[in-house]
Write a structure and sequence with these properties.
Pfam families: TusA. About 30% of the residues lie in helices and about 35% in strands. With about 80 residues, it is α+β, with helices and mostly antiparallel strands.
Length: about 80
């Protein structure tokens, strides 16, 4: 995947990963891709709901060594 911006919010607790992701995705053009890295376990539920409510598309997510990674396409 061709990522336009990588956002590292590891170590931040809810709601900061979503708040920072919202700021980051607002700076992107429609169709661009944001990759988010977080250690907040609540993000498993938060990011799909946030992406959907914002009109964005959660392309995929994975967990690697306690780090959750999300790829979100700006809608």
């Amino acid at each position: 995947m061709n990522v336009d911006k990588v956002l590292d919010v590891k170590g931040l607790a809810c709601p900061m990963p979503i708040v920072k992701s919202k700021m980051a995705i607002n700076a992107l053009e429609e169709g661009q891709l944001l990759e988010v890295h977080t250690t907040d376990k609540g993000a498993k539920n938060d990011f799909p709901a946030w992406a959907k409510s914002g009109g964005h598309e959660l392309l995929k997510h994975e967990e690697e060594d306690d780090v959750l990674k999300f790829w979100i396409k700006k809608g």
